[in-house]
Amino acid sequence: MSEDRIENKSRRSFVGAAAVAGIGVAALAPGLKLIEVAGAAQRAPGEPASSAVRWGMLIDTSKCASGCDACVKACALENGINETVTDARQGSQWIRKIDLKDPKTGQEHSLPMLCQHCEHPPCVDVCPTGASMKRADGIVLVDRHICIGCRYCMMACPYKARSLVHMPLTEQNPLVPRGQGCVEACTFCVHRVDRGQQPACVEACPEKAMLFGNLNDPNSEIAQRIAKEKTTQVRADLKLNLGVRYQGI
Amino acid sequence: MQSALTQRLRIPNFYLLAAIGAILTVAGTLAAFYMEHHGHQVTGMNNQVFWGLPHVFAIFLIVGASGVLNVASIGTVFGKKVYKPRGPLSGLLAITMLAAGLFVIMLDLGRADRLIVAMTHVNWTSVFGWNMVLYPVFFGLVGLYVWLLLDRKMYAYSKAAGTAAFIWRLVMTTGTGSIFGFVVARQAYHSAVIAPMFIIMSFAWGLAMFLLFQTAMYKWQGTQLNEEIRLRLNNLLGTFVAAVAYFVVVYHLTNIYYAKQTAFEHFILVSGGIYPQLFWVGFVVVGTLLPLLFVFVPALRNTPSSSILASIFTILGGLAFLYVFIIGGQAYPLEIFPGMEVKSSFFDGVVDPYTPSLPEILLSIGGFGLYFLLSLLAVHVLPFMPQDDIAQLQASGALHD
Description:
- The structure holds two protein chains of two kinds.
- By secondary structure, chain A is an alpha+beta fold.
- Chain A has helices spanning 3-8, 10-28, 34-39, 70-79, 122-126, 152-156, 190-193, 200-204, 221-228, and strands at 55-60, 95-101, 108-114, 132-134, 140-142, 163-164, 183-184, 210-214, 244-247.
- Chain A is 27% helix and 16% strand.
- Chain B is mainly α.
- Helix content of chain B is 70%, strand content 1%.
- Chain B has 16 helices and one strand.
- Chain B has helices at residues 2-5, 14-38, 53-68, 70-76, 87-107, 115-120, 127-150, 158-181, 194-221, 227-257, 262-271, 274-296, 298-301, 306-331, 358-381, 390-396, and one strand spanning 341-344.
- The longest helix of chain B is centred in the middle third of the chain and has 31 residues, at 227-257.
- Chains A and B meet through strand 2, helix 5, helix 6 and strand 6 of A and helix 6, helix 7 and strand 1 of B.
- Strand 2 of chain A pairs antiparallel with strand 1 (341-344) of chain B, so a sheet runs across the interface.
C-alpha cells in the first residue's frame, strides 16, 4: 500500500499532513537537522510518525540461547496475549523462538521470529480493506476496526508472522486492543516506542541479543552495527527490505 | 414477457425440492452464526491452515459461476444456435452460483458482520479488493444480459451485453486465479499459470453444474433433452475436462522444473497423505478419467445417465483439486529458512493437520443449498429452462454446425 493510501484515511490524514508540515519545518529551521527529528524517539500525543525514522531491529543469534524464551514471555505479558487455547495451533504468536539446524554441517542457531516490518509488506498489498498498513516510520500494523478477518494477509506473509484470534478474549491490555476474528501481529510494541521506550522483547532479553533503533540514523547503534557487520534478511530473495536483521545466521 | 411466463417450469415436487434447498441454506447460515459467536476455534482451521473447507466450496462456486456463463456466450457471442435457448438458464446459474459462493466466503470471515466495511474500504493493490468491483459488475452485466435475452423486444441488444459479460467473466476469473497467483510466500502458489488454469477450470466446472441442473430439471419435469444436443454438450464437457488436465500437468511440471519447488511437489503428489490421495483418486481418476470415459467411450456415452455421471464426477474432481490446492498448499510448511531443519512452538517445519468441523461442512454444503434454492425458485417463476425447436435446428443444420 502506498503512503498516499494511508493518507486517504480520515483518521490518518491529519497525522499525514502534520508529518509533512513537521518535516517542512525541520528542513527550513536553521540549525535543525532531519536526523535530530528522527533521533527524538518519543512522540508527543498527536505528533505524526515520520518517514525520517525507520524503526528496525538487529538480532544477534550468537547470543540467543536455544531454551530461552524471555522475549516471548515479555511480549505476551506486554500485549495481553493470554488466552487459553485447547488447540495450540489456534493460539496467537506475535513472536516465537525458532531452532535451526543445518543438516549438512550440523550448525545450530536459535532465534526469535517476529513480524519483519517489511518496507514492501505483502500483507499490506493484499489486504482488501487497507486494515494492514505501514506507518511512516516503517512499523507494520493492523487496524482492527476495519480488519474483516479474511486471512489473506496470513496467506501472503512469508514469515508466518500473523495470527487470527480464534476465540473470545478477556482481560485485555487497554493499550493493545485485540479482537476475536481479527488478524494481528507484532507491532514492535508501538505504544512503547511512541513513548520513547524499547519494545518489551528487547528490554527482556537477558543476553542483550536484540537491538532496536532507527535504521535511518547513521549515528544510531543499530545503523552502525549494520554498517560494520554482516547481517542477514530472512528470505532476502523476496527483496522486501526488512526492518528486522539477523546476525550470525 | 407475459406469454413467455406461461412456459415456466412445472416441477411435480417443487415445494419438497425447495424445502431441501432451504433447509441446507438455513443449516449453513446457522453454522455460520455458531462460528461467528464462538469464534473460529470451533472450526478445524487454525493459524497454520486458515482457509479451510468453506474456501474450497466458495471458490468452486465463484469460479464455476464464471464458467457456467459460457453456455450463453457460445450462443450469443459465437452464434451457435443449439446454445442460444440455453442463454437465460446459463445467465441465471451464473448469478445464483456467484451469490452462493459469496454467501459462503463472506460468512466464513473472521468478522462477517463487517460486510459494509469490506464494501466501503477498498485497497486497490489487493486482488481481493478488486472483487468489490469484479463481482457487482458481473452481477449487473449478467442480469442485464438475461433480461435482454428474455424480453423479446430487447433481444437485439443481447449480443452487446453478452459480449461484455463474456469479457468480464474472463477478467473476473483472472482475478480469482490471481488471488493465489500473486502470493509470493508459498510454494503452492505464485505462478503465472494459475489464472489461465482457473479460467479453463471454470469452463469445465461451470458446464458440469449447468448440465447437472438442466438434466435434473428436465427429468423432474418429465421431459428429456434431445439426444444430439445432449451428446454435443457432453463432448464440450469432455474437451474442457481434458484442457483442465493439461493445465494441471503444466502447473505441476512448472513447479517440478524449479529445484526449490520439488520438495513441495513430492509432498503434494507422493508423500503428503490425504493430499496425494485426493489428487490422484479424486482429481485424476474421479474428476478426469471417469468424465472422459463417460463422454468419449461409445458404450458409455450413449447411456442417458452419462451426462449426469460425467457432470457429477467433474464437480467432485474440481472440489478434490481445490482441496489439495488450497488446503494442501497451506499444510506444507512455509520455507522461511530454505535448506535448514526448523523447529518452533508455532509448528514451523512440520506439516499441519486439518480436519473440517461440522459447522464448516454445513456452511460449505449450505452454499450448494442456496445455489439450488435460488435456481429452483427462478426457473419456477420465469421461463429460464431451454425450449428447443428440434425440427428447426435440424432443418438449419445447426445441430451439427
